[in-house]
Amino acid sequence: MTTTHPASAPTPPLGRALCAMITPFTPSGALDLDGAARLADHLVREGCDGLVLNGTTGESPTTTDTEKAELLRAVRDAVGDRVRLVAGVGTADTRHTTELALAAEKAGADAVLVVAPYYSRPPQDAVEAHFRTVADTCGLPVVLYDIPARTGTRIETDTLLRLAEHPRITAVKDCSYDLLGVQKLLARTDLAVYAGCDEHNLALYAVGGAGYISTVANTVPGRLRAVLDAFDAGDTAGAARAQQRATHLIELTTSSGLPGAVTAKALLTALGLPAGPVRAPLLPASAETTAALLTAHEDLTAPAR
């Protein structure tokens, strides 16, 4: 498979620039479907060509199955067929995960995102069986989500290589921090590999990745897409500069000790975009954190000097 991205290269089936969208809530903590529709439309107009709903940044552990389906339907109504919608369906329970995958398919998702089963820390043969069960049951393309820092379980490279043989397992969201393992996947499979950590967006794309699934894209969708656009246009130095300019906001959003849902919602609220509070056990960002995020956003979006 090719490891370059010429301007004429086809866009991956799920898009290149995907946002791991927050789930807006009302001030009382209820699901804000109108806000979700407005935010989704804004993100698409600002450059996202895919949205991931009900993922980590979407606070999936604290939304109900009914809310997950309602959110998906509301966003599908808002964006139509302009972008691909990927539904997070991963849980610690294989049976529950397959139920959510079938519900997402019914609600209009284009693909499902399945995280490694967490807490029980299954061995690799059980991890593989979990993913195969979901892929066998659901008729949608499956995106595997490797984020061992949260799940406690790595999807080992050899496991991913075997899973790549399944016709419905088509992509990986990578938060493994194992660039060698990712390059082995790119060299030996046709999987579309997406950076799940914003600091890796350009690095993974440069070695053949499909793009990114980004938390930071909630607040600067156009700035992150510009990194990929510059690279595709052959302006590798410009792509590097654009990635570097985003570094401070990336750090504050995803590496400041707070979950991305907390920081993204704080900044979205400060920018006047739909967000609302986070659900317990998460707590809102402090005024100081929000001010720092807003300053970093202003620095990034100011005209380049």
UniProtKB/TrEMBL annotation:
Keywords: Amino-acid biosynthesis, Cytoplasm, Diaminopimelate biosynthesis, Lyase, Lysine biosynthesis, Schiff base. Pathway: Amino-acid biosynthesis; L-lysine biosynthesis via DAP pathway; (S)-tetrahydrodipicolinate from L-aspartate: step 3/4. It is found in: Cytoplasm. Its EC number is 4.3.3.7. It catalyses: L-aspartate 4-semialdehyde + pyruvate = (2S,4S)-4-hydroxy-2,3,4,5-tetrahydrodipicolinate + H2O + H(+). SMART domains: DHDPS. The active site is at 145 (proton donor/acceptor), 173 (schiff-base intermediate with substrate). It is an enzyme of class 4 (lyase). InterPro entries: Aldolase_TIM (IPR013785), DapA (IPR005263), DapA-like (IPR002220), Schiff_base-form_aldolases_AS (IPR020625), Schiff_base-form_aldolases_CS (IPR020624). Pyruvate binds at residues 57, 213. The record marks 56, 119 as: Part of a proton relay during catalysis. SUPFAM superfamilies: Aldolase. It holds the Pfam family DHDPS. It comes from the Bacteria. One of its GO terms (molecular function) is 4-hydroxy-tetrahydrodipicolinate synthase activity. Belongs to the DapA family. Homotetramer; dimer of dimers. Catalyzes the condensation of (S)-aspartate-beta-semialdehyde [(S)-ASA] and pyruvate to 4-hydroxy-tetrahydrodipicolinate (HTPA). This is 4-hydroxy-tetrahydrodipicolinate synthase. It comes from Streptomyces andamanensis.
